Amino acid sequence: MASRPEEVTLIGVCDGQLDSKRYQSSYLTNKVGGPPDWLPGISLQSTRCGRCGAPLAHVVQVYCPLEASPYHRNLHLFACPGVECSGRSDSWRVLRSQCLEAESAGTASRPDPAQEAPLAATDWCDTADDWGMEDEEDWGGGMKKEIHKEAAAAPEAQAACETDVSSQLQDLSLGERQEDVPVLRSFFISVVEESDLFGEEDDLRHAQRLLREYERREGVAVGELDGGEGKGGEEKYEKTKARHGDAVFSRFMKKISLCPQQIMRYCRGGKPLFISEPPSNMAQVVSACGCCGGSRTFELQLMPALVSLLQRGDSGVEAELEFGTVLVYTCTNSCWTTGSKSAMEEICFVQTDPDQQLFK
To answer: Could you tell me which residue ranges the Programmed cell death protein 2 C-terminal domain spans (predicted)?
Structure first.
């Protein structure tokens, strides 16, 4: 049996505002806010809050095809901007949509490079993966994607699934005014591999280890190598104490400390980064896929730094969206039937953060 490829966590960061007058986004674009760009053939979806019934704002769009799959694949996250609904899992929705590459040919072409703004979402670091970038050999781009088997759902099972989703989603009607749907300011999302952020820290840790070995061998004490000296030449020690004894929160803060401006973490099949202790019934919270009945797996999570970017496009006023982290779990098989017109609903799990103001 071949060993499983090492899991790679991708870090999403804001890469500048997406000006719709200068750049026409498509389903290939990874972005915050703006209207959702649906895949060709996917019916327009109107999502409403499970708590108050209000129209949901489009928060994030991610182009995330899977390796060895013939499908384009998108995730769209929506949330209720109402104050009373902030931080509640039932006020968030995530929809997964797919279509064959052949179905999209000639329907939604890649935007003209001349239209792209500087530092657009398709401009990656040299060692980073092309999150959503296509090339001639690999239509799915260079994202680290898990090899999987496409679930061959029977037509009747798919029809039942679409009926179930349709009962949860209200179709966009001609009578619904567009201004009733809140639209957030749009920003590009760019990406780097998390491992690229650890180079300097690994060097420092190695130096610290050598220093401790030298102290034990020679019986002398030397100052800490922390990148700077303490006041008056004294040794400088920095110790992190868990807030209120919250070890989970402490680990969360330590993990994101090298890139506190990260707005998203992506690692399909990896381990989520909880901001607080998860519920004991997490296995029940992440229920089986409503379509194929298979298991769900962690795919991505939104981070606290995203909150300050969520502003209403018409006024620039910050939306009433507060959260610590939003974890997204999707069908492990990414089940889909060719020709389907309805997006699949997946699971959002929201954890709140009492120290949210630290990220603004």
So the answer is: 246-351
For residues 69 and 147, give the distance between their C-alpha atoms in angstroms, rounded to a whole number: 8
**The pairing of beta strand 296-302 with beta strand 325-331:** antiparallel
Q: Which of 15-19, 56-60, 162-166 has the lowest mean pLDDT?
A: 162-166
Query: Is 135 part of a structural domain of the chain?
Result: yes
Output the CA–CA distances (angstroms, integers) from residue 297 to 117, 285, 329, in the order listed: 35, 12, 5
Residue position matching structure tokens 């053939």: 41
C-alpha–C-alpha distance, residues 275 and 287, integer Å? 21
As a whole number of angstroms, the distance between CA 188 and CA 10 comes to: 15
What's the CA gap between 65 and 141, in Å, rounded? 8
Q: Are 265 and 303 in contact (CB under 8 A)?
A: yes
Structural domain span for residue 206: 199-227+236-257
pLDDT score at 154? 41
| pLDDT tens, residue by residue, 291-326 | 999 999 999 999 999 999 999 887 666 677 899 999
**What pLDDT was estimated at residue 201?**
55
Greatest extent of the chain over all pairs of C-alpha atoms, in Å: 81
The two tokens of residue 54 are 């209000």
Residue 355 structure tokens: 């120290």
Q: Tell how strand 264-266 and strand 45-46 pair up.
A: unpaired
